[in-house]
Amino acid sequence: MSTFWTGLLIAVAIIVVIAGGSFTWLVWRLNEETVTPLTVSNPDGTAGKALVVYQPGLSSFPKRVTEAFSEGLVASGWQVSTTTASSKAPAAVAGYDLIILSSPVYGGAPGKPLARYIERVADFGRKPVVVLLTGAGDVEPAIKLTEQMVVRAGGRAIRSLGLTTMKPNDEANKYTGSNTDRAIQIARETGRALQPAVQ
Amino acid sequence: MVTRQFCAGSGGSRRLELLPLLPQLLTGLRLASAPLVWWLVTRLELQAAFACLGFAMVSDAADGSLVRRFGTPSRAGAYFDATADFAVIAAAFSAFAYLDIYPVWLVALIALAFLVFLLSSCLTSTIYDPVGRYIGGILFVAIAATLLLQDLLLQFVILSAATASLTITLGARAAYTLATRRQILIGARYPKTSL
User: Fold this and answer.
1) Which residues of B fall within a CB distance of 8 Å from A13?
2) Judgement on whether residues A10 and A92 belong to the same structural domain of the protein
3) Which of B38, B65, B43 is nearest to B53 (CA)?
4) Which residues of A touch B142 (CB under 8 A)?
5) Which of B31, B40, B110, B142 has its CA 20 to 30 A from that of A113?
6) How do residues B152-176 score in pLDDT, each as one tens digit?
7) Which domain holds residue A118?
8) Distance CA B178, CA B176 (A)
9) Does the pLDDT of residue B18 top 80, yes or no?
10) Are the beta carbons of B101 and A105 separated by less than 8 Å?
11) Counting runs of H as helices and runs of E as strands, what totals does chain A give?
């Protein structure tokens, strides 16, 4: 066997061992919930009360997109309550006018903590729900899956937004910066423009 | 047969003279492909970027074989080869950092590993570095997997694998270089005396 192939085999073996260890840790980490307190932005907002439940994910991208969306809501006068998807997140959603469910996409599906939160709420009481998913490539199958979960739990999926790091987010070239910068701007703009669609 | 063909006529002998330069030409082309890789990735032209990376990987495998075949290995050629590898890897990971796929500190870690490689190679010719020999291959595979399999979970696995590999090679090289330097210093302080 040539040096090249021996080298390649050793490189692949090293990758498999390290990736296997990382993967085991990741499976544990992805199933684990992140518990954060409910924070309220713009408590004097008059447009309505919105609840943002999000899964932070492993990179900063999902959180940044969720924050930008919340900023857009606040800019258009919403009172926004934000928390992470966990057993401590409010399951009684009757007091809110709008629910935003945000999660990264792993292996073509939304994060498990968010899926468990939807199951725990069980009945959204026909409340309008926005699905906000972030991923690396194609997020459409995950959006459809999440919408089905929302509908099964008695919610109305009024808007879904999928933003990615490796597929163009802004094909109309409306925004500036990198693909992720554009994703942040799109999220903020969608949050800001949501009010007329809900009312 | 190839030799006879090249030896026929003066034009043929010139081609034969130039043939040993083929590995350097390939390495040079790989170096030149680095900015193209960066540009293609940041423009999200991922298939074209993958093709460009494929060329870099094939040329990396081919230039070493050609050097051994023509019997023209040199220290400068080895450094040129490592620099071209580093340029392509750094370009790809910088582009990934620009797209927020991987953190900026990973690019800094790659640059540090290359710097330590250069310094440790200057200080000592033999070094125990179980991963360093394959770090280029590991990072090339990491780039290819990132471009092909677009998934956040997989990207985190790649980030962990790349960080672990770079840390191992950095640690091994730093420890071995320090140990060698200490031996040199002890040797200079207590020179062997002959009776």
Assistant:
1) none
2) no
3) B38
4) 15
5) B142
6) 888 888 898 888 888 888 887 777 7
7) 39-198
8) 5
9) no
10) no
11) 6, 7
Collapse the DSSP code of A123 into the 3-class scheme (helix H, G, I; strand E, B; otherwise coil) and give the result: coil
User: Are the CB atoms for A102 and A29 separated by under 8 Å?
Assistant: no
Q: Are A103 and A110 in contact (CB under 8 A)?
A: yes
Question: Where does chain A show beta strands of DSSP type E?
Answer: 39-41, 48-54, 78-84, 98-106, 109-110, 128-135, 156-164
SS3 A129: strand
Is ipTM beyond 0.85? no
* Element (DSSP H or E) covering residue A161: strand A156-164
Q: Between vectors from CA A152 to CA A150 and to CA A156, what angle results, nearest 5°? A: 45
- The rounded distance, in Å, linking the Cα atoms of A192 and A173 is 19
- What is the model's pLDDT at position B188? 64
Interface touch A136/B151, C-beta < 8 Å: yes
Cβ contacts of B173 within 8 Å, gap of 6 or more: B116, B117, B120, B127, B129, B132
Helix, strand counts (H, E) of chain B:
8, 0
A155's tokens: 């919610």
Reduced to 3 states (helix: H, G, I; strand: E, B; else coil), residue A93 is coil
Choice between A108 and B187, residue whose per-residue pLDDT is larger: A108
| Co-location of A91 and A1 in the same domain | no
The crossing angle, in degrees rounded to 10, of helices A112-121 and A3-31 is 20
Nearest chain B Cα to A2, which residue? B65
3-class DSSP state of B136: helix
Asked if B141 lies within 8 A of A135 by C-beta distance, the reply is no
Residue A144: give its domain's CATH number: 3.40.50.360
* Token duo for residue B191: 């020179």
How far is Cα A153 from Cα A147, in angstroms, rounded to an integer? 10
**pLDDT for residue A25 is more than 90:** no
- Assigned token pair, A190: 């969608």
CB contact under 8 A, A22 and B155: no
Residues 6+ apart with CB under 8 A from A129: A98, A99, A100, A101, A150, A155, A156, A157, A158
pTM for the model stands at 0.79
Whether B135 and B165 have beta carbons less than 8 Å apart is answered as yes
Same domain, A13 and A71: no
Structure token pair of residue A150: 């929302």
My answer on whether A17 and A113 are in the same domain is no
